[in-house]
TrEMBL record:
Gene3D superfamilies: Putative cyclase. It comes from Cohnella abietis. Transmembrane segments: none annotated. InterPro entries: KFase/CYL, KFase_sf. SUPFAM superfamilies: Putative cyclase. GO terms for molecular function: arylformamidase activity. This is Cyclase. One of its GO terms (biological process) is L-tryptophan catabolic process to kynurenine. It holds the Pfam family Cyclase. It comes from the Bacteria.
Length: 214
């Protein structure tokens, strides 16, 4: 038997996102009263809420969403507990030292800061603990397949070099996770498959942790 922990943020009309991203709109298109069924229109960024980045997000000849190997998005994952991190504090290689022996080629690595609790405050997008360039290089050198986090992006200022390092190494970046503290173990089965959006840079996901229970 498996317990499911939902690691996803809600999508709703007006849900905040980065200032320069498309705004989220969930609009009633028709109703049971008007045509016999409810149907809605979605308009939002490919990076709204809980989502993943494909290499094409920063690299013009990088893989697009439908070209991703779904093995990176589905399978056993490692959870690194960084919930002690303070706002704007760097996340460094040393913070991952206890887990180094499990960060082998193809590993799926998720880190927890509990920053999702700051959503929807505006500082959610700017003041979170951030990944250093050195950590991005270290993760790339270990050839992991996915790095996930409960912050909106790895680094709010050096976002370009950090993304280029990770995506250039074909590491899928899973951003905007939530509820990582509810998992209760440092290993779990992750499901975070993207929509099959042809030729584009990212996709919202419904991220889940699946846990074996008695």
């Amino acid at each position: 038997m498996r317990k499911i922990v939902d690691l996803s943020m809600d999508i709703y009309h007006g849900a905040p996102t980065f200032a320069w991203d498309p705004k989220c709109a969930v609009i009633v298109h028709n109703t049971v009263e008007s045509i016999g069924y409810n149907i809605s229109q979605l308009s939002m960024s490919t990076h709204q809420g809980t989502h993943l980045d494909a290499p094409f997000h920063f690299i013009d000849d990088g893989k697009t969403v439908e070209q991703l190997d779904l093995q990176a998005c589905i399978g056993e994952a490692i959870l690194v507990d960084l919930s002690y991190k303070q706002p704007k504090e760097p996340i460094t290689v040393e913070d991952f030292a206890l887990y180094e022996d499990r960060m082998t080629e193809g590993a799926r690595v998720i880190y927890r800061t509990d920053w999702h609790k700051q959503f929807p405050n505006s500082h959610y997008f700017s003041d979170f603990p951030f990944m250093t360039i050195e950590l991005a290089e270290w993760l790339a050198s270990r050839k992991i397949s996915l790095i996930g986090m409960d912050v909106p992006t790895p680094n709010p200022t050096d976002y370009s070099p950090v993304h280029h390092i990770l995506l250039g190494a074909d590491i899928v970046i899973l951003e905007g996770l939530a509820n990582l503290g509810d998992i209760g173990t440092n290993e779990f089965f992750l499901m975070a498959a993207p929509l099959r959006i042809r030729g584009r840079d990212g996709s919202p996901v419904r991220a889940l942790a699946m846990l074996e229970v008695d």
